[in-house]
Amino acid sequence: MQNKVRKAVFPVGGLGTRFLPATKAMPKEMLPVVDKPLIQYAVDEAREAGIEEFIFVTGRGKVLIEDHFDRSYELEQVLIERGKDAVLEKLTESLPSTGAVAYTRQREPLGLGHAVWCAKRFVGDEPFAVILADDLILSDTPALKQMIDARDNLGGGNILAAMEVPKEQTSRYGILSPGYDDGKTVEITNLVEKPDPSVAPSNLAVIGRYILEPTVFDLLENQARGAGNEIQLTDALSKLLENRPFYGLRFDGTRFDCGDKIGFLHANLAFALARDDIGADFKEIVKQVSETL
Ligand code: UTP
């Protein structure tokens, strides 16, 4: 079996109800942080981690995502005529190459677990990454690259991105039960979806980056609906870890929950301040605004 992580799955079939009306006709994943859509951050992160094939699980109303990752001849022509070479270069350099992208539709948004299962035929019998574009991570080394490097050191296995959260927030996340823990990589002995703080096994939450072995597809195939009447990825992962090595990686970086309004605004602030071109000017504006509060 191929052991290198070459493929990434991007589940983008959700409805994004927390962002209505913005997401009525536009996919949530096309919301921009500064000047780049969330889904492009995700694809760039995957490419920088060495991913060669990009599999999107889309849904109704998501064709804009396909257009975004395609050539736009008219626009390119206008940019050439106007001498906007730098803009044109930026636009084309981030396009995945032809043949390296696949789109499949999740006909009904039955949950993240179901969305991942929809990618089964495209992934085949090899380990793969899953990236949730609404979990945006600001880091020096792309989070997925950190995970792939950690997996290489471990010699394979399933690995999830893990993050300490305040104890009172455990009911918002999938929470892991830690086994052997070297402070960076932690063995996962169990996973619980959104536990109440009183029963949470730790405050280590799983966030939207996963490297999984293809056996997960068999479990997803028979996975019953769980919380929210959706087919949950966490439920299938809990079964998978009964007989497979499973790890969490405390990645270096800051994660923003861009599926939520406050998290999305926070990401815009942090990413704008971190930019070489606009960071300094924007900092002045932030200062002025905060003085008026
Ligand atoms: P969310 O839980 O954020 O759901 O999904 P959502 O529908 O996108 O947004 P809200 O809660 O209505 O505002 C987490 C991730 O799983 C994907 C989403 O696109 C998002 O990346 N997802 C979710 C699917 O691809 N299909 C589904 O059926 C559900």
What is the compact description of this entry?
With about 290 residues, this protein is an alpha/beta fold.
What does this structure look like?
This protein is of the alpha/beta class and 293 residues long. The chain is 33% helix and 24% strand. The chain has helices spanning 38-48, 63-68, 73-81, 85-93, 112-117, 120-123, 143-154, 216-221, 233-240, 261-273, 279-291; strands spanning 7-11, 32-33, 36-37, 53-58, 101-105, 128-131, 135-138, 158-164, 174-181, 185-193, 204-212, 246-250, 254-257. The strands form 3 sheets. A 5-stranded mixed β-barrel has the order 8-11-9-10-12. Strand 2 (32-33) and strand 3 (36-37) form a beta hairpin.
Q: What descriptors fit this protein?
A:
293 residues; alpha/beta; 5-stranded mixed beta barrel; two-stranded antiparallel ribbon; 33% helix; binds uridine 5'-triphosphate
Mean pLDDT: 93
CA(first)-CA(last) distance: 58 Å
Structural class: alpha/beta
Ligand identities: uridine 5'-triphosphate
Q: Which word captures the global form?
A: globular
Spans of 5+ residues with little confidence (pLDDT < 50)? none
* Topology as a string of helices (H) and strands (E): EEEHEHHHEHHEEHEEEEHHEEHH
How do the strands line up in the largest sheet?
Answer: 8-11-9-10-12
Residues in β-strands, percent: 15-25%
How many strand elements?
13
Could you estimate the helical fraction of the residues in percent?
25-40%
Largest sheet data = 5 strands, mixed, barrel
Computed over alpha carbons, the radius of gyration is 20 Å
**Separate helix tally:** 11
